[in-house]
Amino acid sequence: MARTVTTSRRTVNTVFAGALSLLMFFPVLWIVILSFKTEGDAIKAPFEILFNTGWTTESYGAVQARSNYFKHFSNSLIISLGSTFLGLLIAIPAAWSMAFVPAKRTKDVLMWMLSTKMLPPVGVLVPIYLIFRDLGILDTRSGLVFVLMMINLPIIVWMLYTYFREIPGEILEAARMDGASLREEVIHVLIPMAIPGMASTVLLNIILAWNEAFWTLNLTAAKAAPLTAFIASYSSPEGLFYAKLSAASIMAIAPILIMGWFSQKQLVRGLTFGAVK
Amino acid sequence: MGQIQLKSVKKCFGDVVVIPPLDLEIEDGKFVVFVGPSGCGKSTLLRLIAGLEDVTEGTVEIDGKDATGLPPAKRGLAMVFQSYALYPHMSVRRNIAFPMKMARIPQDEQERRISEAARVLNLTDYLDRRPGQLSGGQRQRVAIGRAIVREPAAFLFDEPLSNLDAALRVGMRLEISELHKRLDTTMIYVTHDQVEAMTMADKIVVLRDGVIEQVGSPLELYREPRNLFVAGFIGSPKMNFVDGPEAAKYDAHTIGIRPEHIDVSAESGEWTGTVGVSEHLGSDTFFRVNVDGFGDPLTVRADGEVDLHYGDTIRLAPNLDQLHRFDAEEKRLA
Asked: Is the reported ipTM for this assembly greater than 0.95?
């Protein structure tokens, strides 16, 4: 028998869920509000800000005038897309071999890969910084593409592994019998069948790379700085500029927010792929 | 051509020997069925021939050439899987075309072979559908179509009918036999169903624990099973086995008699028993009969219309020409 939920109970649930989501969304909402205020209004008491101040887009203008948004935007784009693409190139063969030719220690290898995510990044900041300096790739986009790929690789491999495991081995064997080489088997059969899973892997990875702040802030100065550095530059020694900082934040997160909004169906489908047969 | 020879082929998974060294010759154009209970190594043997598993020792020869080290793609064999293993993201047409695309066969030739295969397999109206939109029987035909267009040296079937319902299975059985007659290509067919083996095979290979128990035509196996295992496995319903003093009368450790080789009458017959449960199939009726002095009840075939009821006392007359005798090692006595 299906569980029944009474109407009054459902109303309570709805109100509670609504309140909770408002609570979680509130910081973002507040940033949106502040970004449309003057710098003077933005430091007033919250109640004042909401009801006794006017609206303006001057902060956006100021941010545009002061820093080159599009340079940062294109850096973010190149770094997140580049690290995702490079990560896929490495992760597909890795996940293929772990899913279809597992060895005794495959599970351990997966665990080990994931365990690198548990290490605090700051613990390896100095060695990586020095390596970057010696290789001359500090403040370069290729350096960041590489480091973000490394950071997110365990997640890509782990996700792809889960999706590949869902693909029946007999289909790949059929391709082998049909004369496909390993490359053809992967390109014509495995990848098309894993498209939903790969799409969500790609989306999630772009989001993670776009939002990554620790490495992007520490390994860049001016040339390769992505949008995270663009935001950070507004909490500067000159003092806090709430309105401009808010405007910069909105400009930095808007692209990824919009992408996430349009792809949420795909994301959820991919993340729950295989959970229910 | 499609002549396959296994020479002292051995297969181990880790320390476990799945197939001890084994020799087998499959002649060109024959329909050979590997049959045995689950876990007997029949599928493994097929996969060794296909090249999907590596042999641990020994050689696999195809048309006289050593193919032991060749990958599946280079062996010129086609396989039909139990799960059909169609490519779900491709239309039926592209599924069938896939092996030809891999072989880089010219487009117009591909088209010609696809429409020919579709005609033979009644798939012409379904060429643009996806596998997900087809019934089980149609999917199986697509899998066969994909195998045919390669024009392979031999077809390998791995329990292709076990996912189909009973009625469809009989139909597909006939279609596959028909296909074999028409193409005249070697076919190796794996099944655990002895009825499929009996009805389709030119030659049956009975396997148990990776060992070949007997090789022969269906009737040879039916008439002269080499041991107790083959005797019990081939034939439906199963052969009756009797041991103890009754078997000693025939100088055997165990005697075997098939249900269809026992005559039922009210008056005369060597054995006396009471009728137990019965199965009415229309054309035949199978009775369980508890015979005095025998351990297990016997299964006996009678005419479909015979008038016998639960608890009736009857006489049974075994047809002595058809009696099988086995020694204590379960081997057939001449």
From this structure: no
